Amino acid sequence: MPEFDREKYLYHYTSMDTAINHILKNKTLLFNPLANVNDPMESDPNYWAFSSSGKFRDQLSDYFKNRIKTVCFSRDVQGDWEPGCCPSDFCARGHSKPRMWATYGDDNKGVCLIFDKELLRQAFENGLNGQGRLLHGAVRYGKQLPADKRKAAVTDLKVFEGNFEEALQKKIEDHHDIYFFYKHVDWSTEDEYRFVITGGEPRPIELAFDDALVGVVVGVKYMEKGDSVYDLGDIAQGLGVPGNYLSWGWESAGHAPINEAAKKIGPRFKPPL
Q: Which of 20-24, 125-129, 198-202 has the lowest mean pLDDT?
């Protein structure tokens, strides 16, 4: 497993099928429009868009829903350690978050992909090729929106009567930290870091991650996926990145490699308890 570094790694949870048949097969990650995210305060941006009436309202709403695309990650724990936790413990790592596994990792049957953040940024920048503008950063959390929320909202629709795209990009430049990088505190345990594409076509975008992948982790219920876990191990080996089974409990935690020896043992192979 990669060494502990608060700033270096990002963690993307997904299902095993998606990891095998799309992400690792194509060496790409999918940027989805905001309309498809699971936070209703982001998927329906009418808090910002912006006015109860006006000829630009539908255009603004459509832009935020369909032409803003994002891909999301978790991070290693950023705040103070909980009692009994230290940087070497699994409770501090982005790949060992039980609720993330339950919500995004197919109820612990899925995969957590580990990326080098800086290499990933470079790959996305190189692959964007004029399909929009790339923003990235950590998500902040709060019980209410920041004090400058009124400045972020679009109340004067007259500013769009000239060059709509230019006026909106200026608004996004000034307030993207609220539009795309601020969420309710209930989401804070995700320690989210995200990449956002503004503009471009109103459709999902796949961008190559090049050499940014540094690890593959399989959830504790991996055996329910049958032989797929061994396919995943072969893919990880072929990509030259370490792959591990994950296990943890109240008293201990650990991992064991996805390797040829485990594959030969077959479905009776069990990770360490």
A: 198-202
Specify the long-range contacts of residues 54-60, CB closer than 8 Å, at least 24 apart: 54/157, 55/157, 56/157, 56/160, 56/164, 57/157, 59/160, 59/164, 60/154, 60/160, 60/168
Q: Is 259 exposed, middle or buried (0-12, 13-18, 19+ CB in 10 A)?
A: middle
**Residue listed under structure tokens 């909980």:** 82
191 φ/ψ sector (left φ>0, alpha ψ -120 to 50, else beta)? left
Per-residue pLDDT tens for 222-266?
A: 878 888 888 898 899 899 998 887 776 655 556 655 654 344 435
Phi and psi torsions of 82, nearest 5°: -70, 155
Is the backbone of residue 192 left (phi > 0), alpha (psi -120 to 50) or beta? beta
- Pick 87 or 62 by higher pLDDT: 62
Nearest partner of 8 among 72, 75, 71, judged by Cα: 75
Measured CA distances, 55 to 9, 50, 86, 118, 134 (Å): 44, 11, 55, 41, 28
Angle at 64 between CA 62 and CA 70, to 5 degrees: 130
From residue 208, how far is each of 30, 31, 93, 231 by CA, in Å?
A: 9, 11, 25, 21
Q: Annotate 172-222 with DSSP letters as a single string.
A: HHHHHHHHTSEEEGGGGGG--EEEEEESS-SS-EEEE-TT-EEEEEE-TTG
Residue spans of the domains in the chain: they are: 9-268
Question: What is the C-alpha to C-alpha distance for residues 144 and 127, in angstroms, rounded to an integer?
Answer: 36
